Amino acid sequence: MKNRSILASLIPLLVMGGCGGSSNSTPEPSSTNVGPLLETISAKQIESGETFSYQLVVTDPDDTFPADFTFEIIEGPDGLSINENGLLTFTSSASGTKNNSITIQVKDGGENNAQPSRVTFSLDELYYLNISGKLINYYNNQDIADGEVKLSINGTVIDESVSQSNGEYSLRYLDTLTDLRNVVISADAPAYSEASIRIVPSEIVHPNNLYLPPIHSVATFNATEGTVVQFEAASISVSENSFVDENGNLASGVITSELFIIDPTLDIDLMPGEMVTASADNPTQLIPIESFGAISATFTNEDGKILQLKEGKTAEIHIPVSGLNPPNIIPLYYYDDVNGIWVEEGEATLVNDVTGNYYLGNVSHFTTWNADCIYDTVNILGCVEDIDGTRIANARIDTEGHDYNGRSNAYSNVIGDFIVPVKSNSTMFVSANNLHQSRTLKVITSSSDFTLSECLILDKATSKIELKWGEAPDDLDSHLYGPNGDGGRFHISFYNESEVVGGSTIYLDVDDTNSYGPEVITIPEYNVPGTYQYYVHNYSGLPNIKPLETRVELIINEERTLFTPPEGVAQEWWHVFDVEVQESGVITVNTINAWSTEPGDSISEAIAPRSLLVKPSIAESQLKSKYYIK
Question: Is residue 630 part of a domain?
Answer without folding.
Answer: no
